Amino acid sequence: MSGGLIGSATAPADRFDLALVDLDGVAYRGHEPIPGAAEGLTAARGRGMRLVFVTNNASREPESVAEQLTELGIPTRSGEVMTAAQAAAQLLRTRLEPGAKVLVVGGQGLLTAVRAAGYRVVESADDEPAAVAQGFAPDVGWAQLAEAAYAVERGAWHVASNLDLSLPTARGFAPGNGSLVGAVRAATGVTPDSAGKPSPTMYDMAVERAGARETLVIGDRLDTDLAGARAGGYVGLHVLTGVSTARDAVLAAPGERPHLVGADLLALLEPHPEPTRQADGWWSCGSGAARVVDGVLDLGGTARTRAEQVDLVRAACAAAWAAVDEGAVIDAPTVPALPVDGPTG
């Protein structure tokens, strides 16, 4: 698969039979809907695309996630939700026999998944657990982190549902599970194994469950969602409604580059032009154009409407990535924010 942006002459909803959709920053933000999300996903389903919501959040059970999505205008069944808690339980199975003791640090979703996998949940390091399963929950505090550290220090296997440092909420970005895992790692010096993105484990599980022919991964984070797509060999769509910005995409490391870029989930319903390299060194995409000269990103073309702004982002990504792949070093401070906030069109 290409290391750069690809094109899609048809809308992704018509090309892919399964979409693996991230939640926070893609389908919703905290408890608030993201404009275009319900409309885009509903229309994609109407065209025959199946959806599985794949989240690094391990605090909630699939039924709770499905209920929230349904309330936001995205009717969802619990079987269409794959959580990092389920992936963590799957990872535990690779080393532990059923009946083993597991100290769970996290929310109800992780507790349910670990128990469903056949393990005995304990609350103290003094119970001599074979493993510590750690996932995010807003009420995780020092006492639970301390028990985790004591257990890991005594030899328990540390399994993290994910390593996201931040969590998007309606008020901004809050510390994520990776930040809490970092406290245990700092106390013990032990690096945990992680079941969540960017590992493609959840993606593979979801694809196997759905029996998909061609799968599209949709996410807002380059370092988890899109890195997981690259690692698993899936096409990744970066929507600009969450953590990683258009500028971040331009500066993305090769292993975190998306294959497609869109403003939001309405990007499922429209073709994606592929940037092309011109003889004079410019990369063009629609009305947008970009090139790199002596490590400096140079932009051209017009970008008034949202569609034109996205095309400019695509051209900028193509130009920057090609330059890096050819040995150049991009002068990051010269890369502008590349906002995508114009009128629809």
Automatic annotation (TrEMBL):
It comes from the Bacteria. Keywords: Hydrolase. SUPFAM superfamilies: HAD-like. The keyword Hydrolase applies. It holds the Pfam family Hydrolase_6. GO terms for molecular function: phosphatase activity. InterPro entries: HAD-like_sf (IPR036412), HAD-SF_hydro_IA (IPR006439), HAD-SF_hydro_IIA (IPR006357), HAD_sf (IPR023214). One of its GO terms (cellular component) is cytoplasm. This is HAD-superfamily hydrolase, subfamily IIA. The lineage of its organism: Bacteria, Bacillati, Actinomycetota, Actinomycetes, Micrococcales.
